[in-house]
Amino acid sequence: xxxxxxxxxxxxxxxxxxxxxxxxxxxxxxxxxxxxxxxxxxxxxxxxxxxxxxxxxxxxxxxxxxxxxxxxxxxxxxxxxxxxxxxxxxxxxxxxxxxxxxxxxxxxxxxxxxxxxxxxxxxxxxxxxxxxxxxxxxxxxxxxxxxxxxxxxxxxxxxxxxxxxxxxxxxxxxxxxxxxxxxxxxxxxxxxxxxxxxxxxxxxxxxxxxxxxxxxxxxxxxxxxxxxxxxxxxxxxxxxxxxxxxxxxxxxxx
Length: 254
Fold this sequence. Notes:
254 residues, 13% strand, alpha+beta, two-stranded antiparallel sheet, three-stranded antiparallel sheet, disordered N terminus
């Protein structure tokens, strides 16, 4: 017969072993599903940790491809779309100096001697030309005769009428300030679009402004002839740039 006392002791040992196993399993495996560490109900699935991702990341939008090289579409820029440049960025003295350079370049290409662009007499020519350019800007008109004064009047006022005379190449007549023979005037653009929609132009710096001034003077035969006197020796240039980007220019020869 089996000893009842021994069986009871064996049962206690088995139950104790099972309890220890359950405790060890809980320590190693953490809380069971649906419970927090302290045994409270979570109310559903656990919230993912901050460094976990619940969906695929949204990629950054890609820039549209830009056509490069032959065959790519060329941007169409209208006059209204051009960005203006403040008139304050244009140096009037710099434009005047460049105009002198451009005129002398064209004279030399035509086989004529260059005009002197500095010196005491040139300083007076510059001052006279600048005075008239300012007057044209104030009036908003490109005129040789302005405010009751002609080109010859200005030469007299600056004491240059008598000294600024010379004969033509054939020595058949005397060239003087009468009849605007020694003065060229014009208007250009600075920092704003000009021209037509079909052929828009834009002067962004002093060099481009000077190019426009001299190019348009040379396209006018009367002005080109005045700037091409064989026996002229000096040139003065005055420039005035207005707030709306208009450039009034005067050139006086001697």
